[in-house]
Design brief:
By secondary structure, the protein is α+β, with helices and mostly antiparallel strands. It has helices spanning 2-11, 21-28, 30-39, 73-82, 97-102, 104-115, 120-129, 140-145, 147-151, 193-199, 204-212, and strands spanning 56-60, 65-69, 134-137, 155-160, 164-169.
């Protein structure tokens, strides 16, 4: 929308913007789709793995899961050292990026064996201190207990006459001059039928007749 507004300001011409879910999904597959369009080789499913980098995926720890992005050579060297195995960087199987991709399964086994010795929080600190991109993979209890999620007040409440205080996830958009908030709970089945029909011109007696006939 901003691009269209800028173009209108520049040329004086407005325009219609379309953005379908289908086209968005296709666009997000950009570089894998580019590969298929070029050679028509169907890519294989790789789970959480990154197709062009290793290690760059989800790993299991002693008490859960975490993501590690150790793709660039310098990051990989810091990662191996932080995990207590600097010798991995000299291992012919893991020395360079192409080597690690070729021996991805062996590399995963080596890393998982180390991560299994301590909880996620431990490894997050170790790798973060070493300058290795990483992060925990949360369950929902952990997600809503995250200090930043709590600080940003992502969970808000609205009052319901039957359910009391009902929790909701607020919109992720914050606007400095506008209040974007959850104010009420979702309507119950048929809660606003009378008001909608009245707005369409039905009289109270018409609406009651429809209720009596179980039309509404």
């Amino acid at each position: 929308m901003l691009a269209a507004l800028y173009e209108r300001q520049r040329t004086g011409q407005g325009q219609k913007i379309e953005c379908s879910l289908l086209e968005t999904a296709v666009a997000f597959s950009s570089w894998t789709s580019a590969g298929w369009l070029a050679d028509h080789v169907e890519p294989t499913r790789m789970g959480s793995r990154h197709r062009q980098n290793a290690p760059y995926q989800r790993f299991e720890t002693k008490d859960g899961y975490m993501m590690i992005g150790g793709s660039a050579q310098a990051i990989w060297e810091r990662c191996a050292k932080a995990l207590g195995h600097p010798e991995w960087t000299a291992d012919p199987r893991f020395r360079r990026g192409p080597d690690r991709r070729k021996h991805r399964v062996e590399l995963e086994k080596e890393i998982t064996a180390v991560l299994a010795t301590a909880p996620t929080a431990h490894w997050i600190k170790v790798l973060d201190d070493a300058g290795v991109p990483c992060g925990p993979v949360y369950n929902y209890e952990q997600l809503f207990a995250d200090p930043q999620v709590v600080h940003r007040e992502m969970v808000v409440h609205a009052d319901d006459t039957e359910l009391g205080r009902v929790p909701h996830i607020r919109t992720p958009i914050r606007m400095s001059a506008s209040d974007v908030a959850v104010r009420v709970t979702a309507p119950k089945l048929g809660e606003h039928t009378g008001a909608i029909l009245a707005g369409l011109g039905y009289s109270p007696s018409d609406i009651e007749a429809l209720r009596g006939d179980r039309v509404i």
